[in-house]
């Protein structure tokens, strides 16, 4: 009995992973130096950070272009498609664990560290020695140095951004339905709306940060509350930026006639990622802004 074997495409060696590693190295070094040089005239850290971001964007578009060309040439088999799905699933799982670590740090600070500093669990000696006037309430609006800040409320921009991301989940769902039905006009409209909502979200987050710095005195020097606030919301904003870029690339491909009801994993991968950042924001909104 003759067996039929499925062709499996083995990609050639690629320079893009190395370029991506260099970009992440520059971003890590640049971000660290930028934080250290906040009140300094030295801006070398920000230059390194911007260079890393530039290299990362170059890597993303270059790698996307390479993969798109391979896909359009029909080099990918069903097994390759399954590999892509497994890879994207594991990537999103790693991102879930990434944010769980930060939420765990927030939980530790609020549920354990703050009560301990207030004298709970037989830590009266710690309370008297380290911070005699400490009040075990969250958010911590006073630093050990005596500097004060204000909490970012959940109304206003945070609530608007929550509505925007929830709306974007609806538009990306309708776009998904449209591509499965080969309704390309609806697909273009709903996917364009999703990209637009992502850009608006990022713009409003920048406005929120400006309000926090200028009006609330909520900065990276605002102690534990300020650090956890910018750590969680900043990393989420970075993920929204990446998700918006992914959706933009997919949108451009659709306008060029790529992807259809039978072959559209690129769209699915971007949609999975977008739903992931939406869920993370809901958790952020509840645990960082509301509670």
Concise structural overview:
By secondary structure, the chain is an all-alpha fold.
Describe this structure in words.
The protein has helices spanning 16-36, 44-72, 78-117, 124-130, 157-180, 184-215, 223-255, 265-290. The radius of gyration is 23 Å and the shape is elongated. Helix 1 (16-36) packs antiparallel against helix 2. It is built from 8 helices and no strands. The chain has 291 residues and is mostly helical.
**Parts with pLDDT < 50 across at least 5 consecutive residues:** none
**What does the average pLDDT come to?**
86
Using the coordinates shown, work out and report the CATH topology of the largest domain.
Four Helix Bundle (Hemerythrin (Met), subunit A)
**Total strands:** 0
The fraction of residues in strands falls at under 5%
Number of helices: 8
Radius of gyration from the alpha-carbon trace, in angstroms: 23 Å
Number of structural domains: 2
- Judging from the principal axes of the Cα atoms, what is the shape? elongated
Strand-and-helix sequence, N→C?
A: HHHHHHHH
CATH C-level label of the largest domain: Mainly Alpha
């Amino acid at each position: 009995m003759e067996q039929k074997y499925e062709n499996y495409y083995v990609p050639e060696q690629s320079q893009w992973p190395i370029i991506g590693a260099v970009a992440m190295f520059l971003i890590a070094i640049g971000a660290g130096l930028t934080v250290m040089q906040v009140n300094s005239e030295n801006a070398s850290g920000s230059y390194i950070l911007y260079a890393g971001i530039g290299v990362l964007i170059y890597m993303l578009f270059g790698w996307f272009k390479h993969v798109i060309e391979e896909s359009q040439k029909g080099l990918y088999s069903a097994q390759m498609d399954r590999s892509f799905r497994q890879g994207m699933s594991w990537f999103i799982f790693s991102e879930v664990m990434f944010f769980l670590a930060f939420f765990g740090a927030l939980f530790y600070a609020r549920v354990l560290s703050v009560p301990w500093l207030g004298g709970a669990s037989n830590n009266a000696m710690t309370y008297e020695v380290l911070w005699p006037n400490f009040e075990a309430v969250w958010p911590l609006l006073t630093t050990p140095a005596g500097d004060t800040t204000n909490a970012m409320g959940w109304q206003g921009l945070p609530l608007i951004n929550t509505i925007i991301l929830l709306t974007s989940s609806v538009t990306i769902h309708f776009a998904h339905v449209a591509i499965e039905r080969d309704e390309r006009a609806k697909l273009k409209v709903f996917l364009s709306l999703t990209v637009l909502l992502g850009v608006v979200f990022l713009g409003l987050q920048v406005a929120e940060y400006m309000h926090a710095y200028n009006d609330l005195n909520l900065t990276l020097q605002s102690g534990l509350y300020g650090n956890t606030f910018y750590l969680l919301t900043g990393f989420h904003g970075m993920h929204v930026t990446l998700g918006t870029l992914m959706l933009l690339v997919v949108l451009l491909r659709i306008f060029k006639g790529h992807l259809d009801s039978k072959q559209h994993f690129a769209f699915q991968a971007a949609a999975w990622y977008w739903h992931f950042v939406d869920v993370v924001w809901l958790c952020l909104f509840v645990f960082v802004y509301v509670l």
